[in-house]
Amino acid sequence: MALLEIEDLHASVDGHEILKGVNLTLNAGEVHSIMGPNGSGKSTLAQVLARRETYAVTQGRVLYDGKDLLGMKPEEAACEGLFLAFQYPVEIPGIGNAYFLRTAMNAIRKYRGEDELDAMDFLPVFRERLKLLEMDDALMNRSVNEGFSGGEKKRNEILQMAMLEPKLAILDETDSGLDIDALRIVAHGVNAMRSRERAFLVITHYQRLLDFIVPDFVHVLVEGKIVRSGGPELALELEEKGYGWTEAQAQPA
Amino acid sequence: MSGAIEAEMRRETMATVAKPMDNYLEAYGELRALERREPEWMRNLRDEAWELFREKGFPTTHDEDWRFTSVAALARTPFRRAASHAAVTAKQIEAHRLDGSACRLVFVNGRFAPGISDARSLPAGLEICSLARALDCGMEGCAPTGIEQQLGGYADVHRDVFVALNTALWEDGAYLRIRRGAAIKQPVHLLYVTASGDEARMIHPRTLVIVEDASQVAVVEDYVSLGEGAAMCNSVTELVAGQDAAVSHYLVERENLASFNLSTLRVELGRGARLASHSMLLGGGLVRNNVHPVLAGEGAECLVNGLFVGEGRQHLDNYMLVEHAKPQGSSRQFYNGILDEQAHGVFHGRIVVHPDAQKTDAKQTNRNLLLSDEARIDTKPQLEIHADDVKCTHGATIGQIEEEALFYLRSRGLDEVAARNLLLYAFAAECLERMHEAPARAFAEALIRKRLLEMARRAHPAARLADQDEKAQNWEEVG
User: Fold this and answer.
1) Does A192 touch chain B (CB under 8 A)?
2) Alpha carbon B150 to chain centroid distance?
3) What is the ipTM of this complex?
4) For A76, which residue in chain B has the nearest alpha carbon?
5) Does the pLDDT of residue A246 top 80, yes or no?
6) Residues of B within an 8 Å Cβ radius of A
7) Domain coordinates of chain B in residue numbers?
8) Does the predicted model carry a pTM greater than 0.90?
């Protein structure tokens, strides 16, 4: 059984249709990349999958781990193991990073009927993951994302992912705004998480990220539809020919 | 009793229909009839204050200082003087304990309750007793030296009729004196309990805190109700901080929703003295909190920090008057408000910089979260600057809980109620960061958590809400 099956997904915001029939299937263990020009609906797809209510699904269905994803609230999807790394991570003044992480982990554990973590369970893992992402301990006592640089925010997203250990991780333009060093660190964090049980949906505008996180499949989203799918070589082809090439291809459709 | 009052009382009692204000006259008469050996000057203060109150009556919303707060409902309610000690046991107030306090004075319906107070082992340099006792300990001339310059010397009966009413009608309160150079590490807890009965009661606690040069103390004034009945609590605190003294004052209002609570904190800051005033308005039906520090010495500093949380039909009015009288002073005001349902909040922040007060640095910030369409905030900064070399800024914001932040938390597994609650807590908790006395801060934190949990439970009765992790916070310190 596939981990994620998207069938004919249509979604709109404020009456504007943005996704116009997306079909996509992911299996556990796979890394898929979605590329596409600005405004093609990449982030909308990510947000719909993470169940943001500001997007209305008008048609189609999504099965996640055999369950109806579109019937879930954001927290249910999260507790079922879906994780979205935000394109623009939100600053939450007044809530400590470490505190927030542990609150999130315990919410998920509670949902699954597991015991709450205590400090002794949490801290060793936490420290190890911090090291993986080359993050400063001091950031963890600060408020969530508050006063973080762009790179720190993105690394913090990957840190959260590493702690929450999702089954399906969606990375929404995690590479945007990163310099090459930060990109390497983030990619390293993601690669360390790759496993046979876990799938990734990596959304990006640039091929560059895919040099570091090598996908199994690449899909091109244009005007709310996937117009082409292929292997990693498709990303290179896109880089060479530009999105105009796929848009031109989309025309007859 | 003076002849004029007697005559007036006779006249009033002959009237067939009770007029509004009769109840105050009656209370005043009762008080005068008590055999208290008060110093002459105190009696004179009371008489003067009473005359002022009688003349002026209660303010209306035409009065600029009361524009957003109507006290009509208060004026209509015939509050009576709380006649005697209600029987309150130690067990009943156990829940209101402040862990880690140096001592605790409990006042029930405005009167000192020694049986449930705890001032057994006082730190060196701290003198504390009930104010009534300080003025009358059974010996002639026992009142502390200089007290007549201080008691009533700062809180201005002409400025505010509630101060006048308190001055005329106070029966007890706390008297504290911190000896020169003494540092009192643990906070002093003053618990004012209103035990409501069948009738609406009024109490007028009066507190005097003398913080001598270079000494240090934290005082927590805590107002609570026992029972659900209506009451008025109208308190006045005068706090005098000597040169280089450091003082923290906490006001916690957590009375029942039928309560009217008016409080005035008047602080006189000497040269280089520092004040941190923290107000938390969490309960009460109609609440007016006046904070009035005067930076009367060069280089004095003050922080006026506040949080108000209202729901239902609560009305929470924060009135600040920060007066810079001497050069090189700095003041900071930070107030956060959370208002739900039809609650109404007021932030009136007035800063006066007198001609002498060059190099003043004053800043004011008021942030508000409105959780419903019917909640309302009136925020009014008022800067009056009579010096030319000063830095004064103010800012106010009004917002809602951001959908984006809510979604972020939910996408990490927190359910909607928990996520909202966490965001509200984070907003409210900003005031905690400015509290430096650990026991008082822990006390404040627990109260804020409790209040927000109550609100969340009210708004979402179906949700199962855990008592939000006190464990968790401790634990973070481990990490």
Assistant:
1) no
2) 19
3) 0.96
4) B413
5) no
6) 402-405, 407-416, 418-419, 422-423, 425-427, 429-430, 469, 472-473, 475-476, 478-479
7) 3-297
8) no
